[in-house]
Design goal:
The protein has 379 residues and is mainly β. It has two domains: 37 residues; 333 residues, Glycosyl hydrolase domain, family 43 (Tachylectin-2, Chain A, 5 Propeller). The protein contains five helices and 24 strands.
């Protein structure tokens, strides 16, 4: 009889726990149950923009991004399987008396170098004598732990090119470090056939553009070596193969801007692949393409199979605004594309997606997404 009461008690406690947990807890428990079966489904249970995942090399992953509950800075999550994520709290704090940055904290990327962790990020620079609305610059903070605290290495941005910049990405090889960034659209009107077309329609007087640049970094990250090199920009001609998908912010009458931003570069069999995002980051048409080069600073040639990641609502799906991706390199050689997007359920909130990507035998890059159906957990 005592055994019967014991098992009845277990059932009762389990039932009470089930009915009393919040919808958020239920979602987290479901995520764990799904992952226990060896599969997962997008979106992940993380609400970040511009997600970046660091493979720490010790069986642990750390995710950083824009927003995610952080105030004037950045938060982090940790995971052992890339699916179930633990909130680690805020790991960097800006907008302090000693910080050069005041607001608009965006797109952190963290790199492990010689046992230390370096966070590159974008923010509004306090030094703003002409009171510019967009005075974005890139800085770097350091920690001895992936969960911080990250402390700014310098009381200033890495460098000031004379225009606002965002979306830092760092690549290094053969003792050299390279910084890639996007010149903001702000006060950067560019003449093109797309601009002429929009002007003739009476939609916009001018079209502002953002361009991706690369420049060599000093080894201590205190500045740059040489002048920035233009790597990518939107097409000038409307019959350019890339013009349709890269101009949708304008042709869909979302805004008078064309973006080339969120770049990330890696090397595969002596070829440098640079992925990038185009269109309005807050719109449905945010999408990802890539370009290739034999040199880390270009010239880059955009791929014929662009875009490799875009909304799927025209195919019966529910995902829009897919962009600002990064790449997770697995120990077994697999690659995964991490990016943010929106679903009907998330509304305007950006949530994180993780999908398999690969380089085909012909050298073309393919992302198997966006997906919302079950797939195998990365191992």
């Amino acid at each position: 009889m005592r055994v019967l009461f014991y098992y009845l008690g277990i059932i009762l406690v389990s039932w009470i726990g089930l009915v009393s947990c919040s919808p958020k807890q239920k979602q987290q428990e479901e995520s764990s149950r799904v992952s226990a079966k060896g599969t997962y489904a997008n979106p992940l249970d993380v609400a970040f923009g511009d997600p970046f995942i660091l493979n720490d090399g010790e069986g642990k992953y750390y995710m950083y991004g824009t927003g995610g509950g952080a105030k004037d800075g950045f938060a982090a999550y940790s995971s052992g399987n890339l699916v179930d994520w633990k909130f680690e709290g805020q790991v960097y704090q800006g907008n302090t008396e000693d910080s050069w940055a005041s607001k608009f904290f965006w797109a952190p990327e963290v790199y492990k170098i010689d046992g230390n962790y370096y966070m590159f990020f974008s923010a509004q620079w306090k030094v703003n004598p002409t009171n510019e609305e967009e005075n974005f610059m890139i800085g770097v903070a350091k920690s001895d732990s992936p969960t911080g605290p990250f402390i700014e290495m310098y009381d200033r941005p890495i460098f000031d090119p004379g225009y606002p910049i965002i979306d830092a990405n760092v690549y290094w090889e053969e003792g050299k470090y390279y910084l890639y960034y996007s010149r903001a659209c702000y006060k950067h009107p560019v003449e093109s056939e797309v601009a002429d077309w929009a002007r003739e329609k009476g939609w916009y007087d001018e079209i502002e553009e953002s361009w991706v640049y690369g420049v060599e970094l000093k080894p201590d990250f205190s500045g740059v070596i040489g002048e920035p090199v233009l790597c990518l920009r939107p097409p000038l001609k409307m019959d350019d193969a890339q013009s349709e998908w890269e101009s949708r912010s304008v042709t869909k009458q979302e805004i008078n801007r064309r973006w080339t931003e969120g770049s990330v570069i890696f090397k595969h069999e002596d070829i440098y692949y640079m992925m990038y995002s185009s269109n309005y980051y807050a719109g449905e048409n945010y999408a990802v393409g890539y370009a290739t080069s034999s040199n880390p600073l270009g010239p880059f040639t955009k791929a014929p199979n662009n875009p490799v990641l875009e909304l799927n609502t025209h195919k019966g799906g529910e995902v829009t605004g897919t962009g600002h991706n990064n790449i997770v390199f697995m120990d077994n050689g697999d690659m995964y594309c991490v990016y943010h997007g929106r679903t009907k359920e998330s509304g305007q909130e950006r949530v994180v997606f993780l999908d398999k990507m690969e380089i085909k035998s012909d050298g073309s890059l393919v992302v198997d997404g966006p997906t919302t159906t079950a797939q195998a957990i990365p191992f």
